[in-house]
């Protein structure tokens, strides 16, 4: 991209998830004369909409194997704790890891190497159980090391998004409720804005810079814009993938015990899941084994992974394949076992996100489409950065992003290792059959259909 945008220019941000919302806020705050349009088909303060960032709750932790994300997450957590926009929606109940992949140990070592004053500990199973007897009937088999950080926790996702949406609109950003149809490309092939359909009325929003923050829709959106331009396409830099979640109710007499549970991650071959303790009398669970939805794209003449067309396939509902329901029920069982009787799954959700092969974000100016900026690939771990990620997008926009970050988040980069390896999808939703257990060597069990 040639030169920097003018601080009094017009910016069209497409997508009001973590990336788009945070970018709009930080852009208006650092450049009060910039005109900022924030475009999404659903309002940022609506709950249960089909965005990865809209959810019941999300985990907030700085426990990362990559010291760079650890530093970023520590900075974000300070805002979660202190800023009145976020702090009412942040709960620091601690997080326990029981796993065989060394994530806890890597985090523990990173805090030490970074000289961070942490309260995190490595615990034996006996020590973990003495502290959290609620997990005495969990499936501990295969856990190599347990790790506990009392300074991790979770956020009320829809509530925090709504609060930040209000704060962002208060800065003077203009929200437009509309579907973005495609980018507007001028005769030179540069981006001059976005064509939208606003309650059925089509119009163009012209902008000096267009910032595409459409998450799982990124690949499809670029393909729809100009399928004949292969230089514009995602081409493997990210893929739309989902993981299954559930919300469960429990008998009121269990509340006392469940309230003392931390966020719990089970990273053993038989589980791959997470749980978040009670919020509004519900428990939440994720199964981390992700999947794509490959589908022919007419314009491109090949298959790409696309998120659902029906909102019920990306919001809380019952509209979920049976096999996935069983996979997440397996997480529930292996987390609480029969020690907490009466837990009953109430609803399910496929959460669709853009995942990059190294799980690093993409925050970059498109190298061959002038005035287009991409901010995406939350890769199943981006939500916690809601308060801060936009600062980095704004820096990239104005050419001041620190070199290591610019390189890490570049559109064109070399792939060097993962932030979180297990998030890489290796199967398609249409191939998911009845759940027969995971195999020890990865993937579904030997006798599974999937
Ligand atoms: C199962 C699961 C669990 C996760 N758990 C955690 C967690 O515990 N902690 C954590 O930190 N992260 C977590 N994440 C990751 C986090 O949810 C994502 O990284 C983050 O929400 C991505 O935000 P986004 O802005 O890229 O996308 P989204 O939130 O999906 O936002 C994209 C927006 O673009 C809009 N849009 C798309 N196309 C169009 C169009 N054509 N016109 C108009 N609007 C459009 C959509 O409506 C949507 O609002 C999880 C992800 C998944 C899938
Ligand atoms: C843990 O799960 C595995 C796989 O399903 C199973 O074989 C084992 O018996 C379980 N262990 C416990 C203690 O539940
Ligand atoms: C998969 O893609 C098709 C489009 O080919 C879409 O209609 C459907 O909703 C998607 N399914 C899921 C579960 O995402």
What does this structure look like?
- This is Sarcosine oxidase.
- Its cofactor is FAD.
- Belongs to the MSOX/MTOX family.
- 23% of the residues lie in helices and 28% in strands.
- With 450 residues, it is an alpha+beta fold.
- The protein has one domain: 3-Layer(bba) Sandwich (FAD/NAD(P)-binding domain).
- The strands form five sheets. An eight-stranded mixed beta sheet has the order 6-7-5-15-16-17-14-20, sandwiched between helices.
- Helix 1 packs parallel to helix 5 (157-170) and helix 1 crosses helix 9.
- The longest helix is centred in the first third of the chain and has 16 residues, at 67-82.
- It is globular and about 65 Å long.
- The relative contact order is 0.18.
- The site of one 2-acetamido-2-deoxy-beta-D-glucopyranose has 9 residues, from loops.
Q: How many individual helices?
A: 10
Oligomer: single chain
**Radius of gyration, whole Å:** 21 Å
Structural class label: alpha+beta
Largest sheet: 8 strands, mixed
The CATH H-level homologous superfamily:
FAD/NAD(P)-binding domain
Termini Cα gap: 44 Å
Distinct small-molecule ligands in the complex? flavin-adenine dinucleotide, 2-acetamido-2-deoxy-beta-D-glucopyranose
* CATH-level-2 architecture: 3-Layer(bba) Sandwich
Tell me the overall shape: globular
Number of strands: 22
Instruction: Return the CATH class.
Output: Alpha Beta
Beta-strand residue percentage:
25-35%
For the largest beta sheet, what order do the strands appear in spatially?
6-7-5-15-16-17-14-20
Q: What portion of residues is helical?
A: 10-25%
Mean pLDDT: 95
CATH topology: FAD/NAD(P)-binding domain
Cofactor: FAD
Protein name: Sarcosine oxidase
Pfam family, one: DAO
Keywords: FAD, Flavoprotein, Membrane, Oxidoreductase, Transmembrane, Transmembrane helix
């Amino acid at each position: 991209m040639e030169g920097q945008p003018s601080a009094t220019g017009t910016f069209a941000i497409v997508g009001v998830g973590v990336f788009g919302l945070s970018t709009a806020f930080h852009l208006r705050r650092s450049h009060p004369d910039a005109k900022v349009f924030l475009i999404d088909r659903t309002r940022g303060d609506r709950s249960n909409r089909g965005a990865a960032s809209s959810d019941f709750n999300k985990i907030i932790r700085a426990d990362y194997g990559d010291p760079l994300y650890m530093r970023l997450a520590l900075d974000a957590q300070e805002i979660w704790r202190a800023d009145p926009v976020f702090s009412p929606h942040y709960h620091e109940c601690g997080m326990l890891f029981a796993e065989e992949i060394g994530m806890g140990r890597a985090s523990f070592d990173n805090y030490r190497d970074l000289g961070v004053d942490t309260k995190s500990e490595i615990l034996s199973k006996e020590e973990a159980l003495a502290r959290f007897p609620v997990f005495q009937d969990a499936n501990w088999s295969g856990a190599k090391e347990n790790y506990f950080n009392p300074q991790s926790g979770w956020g009320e996702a829809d509530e925090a998004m709504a609060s930040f949406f209000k704060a962002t609109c208060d800065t003077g950003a203009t929200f437009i409720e509309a579907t973005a149809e495609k980018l507007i490309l001028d005769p030179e092939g540069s981006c001059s804005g976005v064509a939208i359909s606003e309650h059925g009325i089509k119009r163009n929003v012209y902008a000096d810079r267009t910032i595409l923050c459409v998450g799982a829709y990124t690949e499809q959106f670029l393909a729809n814009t100009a399928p004949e331009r292969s230089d514009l396409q995602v081409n493997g830099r990210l893929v739309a993938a989902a993981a299954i979640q559930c919300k469960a109710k429990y008998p009121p007499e269990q509340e006392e015990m469940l309230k003392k549970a931390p966020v719990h991650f089970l990273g053993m071959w038989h589980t791959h899941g997470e749980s978040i303790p009670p919020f509004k009398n519900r428990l939440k669970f994720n199964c981390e084994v992700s999947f794509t939805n490959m589908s022919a794209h007419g314009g491109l003449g090949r298959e790409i992974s696309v998120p659902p067309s029906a909102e019920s396939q990306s919001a809380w509902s019952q509209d979920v394949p049976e096999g996935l329901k069983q996979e997440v029920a397996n997480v529930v069982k292996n987390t609480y076992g029969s020690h907490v009787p009466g837990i009953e799954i109430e609803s399910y959700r496929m959460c669709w996100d853009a995942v990059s092969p190294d799980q690093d974000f993409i925050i970059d100016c498109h190298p061959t489409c002038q005035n287009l900026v991409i901010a995406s690939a939350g890769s199943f771990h981006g939500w916690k950065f809601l308060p801060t990620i936009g600062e980095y997008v704004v820096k990239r926009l104005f050419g001041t992003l620190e070199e290591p970050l610019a390189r890490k988040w570049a559109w064109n980069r070399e792939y060097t290792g993962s932030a979180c390896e297990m998030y890489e999808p290796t199967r398609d939703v249409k191939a998911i059959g009845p759940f027969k257990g995971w195999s020890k060597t990865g993937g579904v069990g030997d006798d599974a259909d999937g």
